[in-house]
Amino acid sequence: MLERLDKFLTSQNICTRKEAARLVRSGLVLLNGQQAHSPAQKLDPQTDQVTVEGQPIEYRRYTYIMMNKPAGVLSATEDRRTPTVLGLLPPSLCRRGLFPAGRLDKDTTGLLLLTDDGPWAHKMLAPKSHVYKLYRAQLQAPITPEDITAFEKGVAQGGVTFAPAKLYTLPGEDPLAAYVEIREGKFHQVKRMFQAIGNQVLGLTRLRIGALCLDATLPLGACRLLTEEEALKVFQSPEGPKGP
Ligand code: URA
Fold first, then answer.
1. What is the model's pLDDT at position 92?
2. Choosing a second label site near 139 at 20 to 30 A (CA), which of 41, 63, 95, 239?
3. pLDDT (tens digit per residue) in 61-81
4. Which domains does the chain have, with CATH numbers?
5. Closest ligand 1 atom, CA of 206?
């Protein structure tokens, strides 16, 4: 399908629409080796070659973004009262159709993915995909061997039984910081699982989805584009020893 050049550049997260017009006017955009003459010029993203300031643009149909979600924002596209994660995106990453792929509670921090690829998000979130998510929970009380066994078997709370989960602490770390790996995404799941064993979550951070780890260089509230290979990591199992 043919697309306007400025829309194409925005969709590839190269620049904003306004910047696209400036780049074209400055003669910095080539379309199939020829200087582009208008931001409204049409191209076929699948077959046409675009370069900006000499850099070839590799066409990507979808956008995948990793965010280190801060507390206090909703994993939603819009809300009348509370700021949402979409509001944290820098202008260069904003594009129509983006949504958070899965939810973290308002007070939960860490790895959140945003995309405009519905089938990818659907597959990642589908219970049958068995995508494991790793969380670090700051707890009110240290975990016991019985808690580990209970999580392994699957705890029940409020009439709901949760699928078996891994629970552990890491040697040398705060004994009140436990790691939990779950493959479901039920409402307040981690908090409810700890509630079921008489403990309480005081803070929660998501560190990994499948084999995709939260980029440790991303400050809270920051985000970056993922490559397509990184986006596919959510469907892989993490390798190596347990832990982040
Ligand atoms: N489990 C929770 O309780 N909250 C989250 O945000 C994610 C998992």
1. 79
2. 239
3. 899 999 999 999 999 999 999
4. 3-56 (3.10.290.10), 64-127+211-241 (3.30.70.580), 132-209 (3.30.70.1560)
5. 7
Phi, psi values for residue 145, rounded to 5°? -60, -35
The partner residues of 51 in beta bridges, in order of sequence, read 30, 56
Residue 92 CA to ligand 1 centre (angstroms): 29
Task: Give the span between the Cα atoms of 155 and 161, in whole angstroms.
Answer: 6
- Is 105 marked active-site? yes
In this predicted model, what pLDDT tens digit does every residue of 77-117 receive, in sequence order? 999 999 999 999 998 788 889 999 999 999 999 999 999 99
How far is the centre of ligand 1, averaged over its atoms, from the C-alpha of 226 (Å)? 23
| CA 16 to ligand 1 center in whole angstroms | 34
Sequence-ordered strand ranges (E) for 116-186: 133-139, 156-157, 160-161, 166-168, 177-182
Q: So what's the pLDDT on residue 11?
A: 86
Active-site position among 6, 48, 105, 174? 105
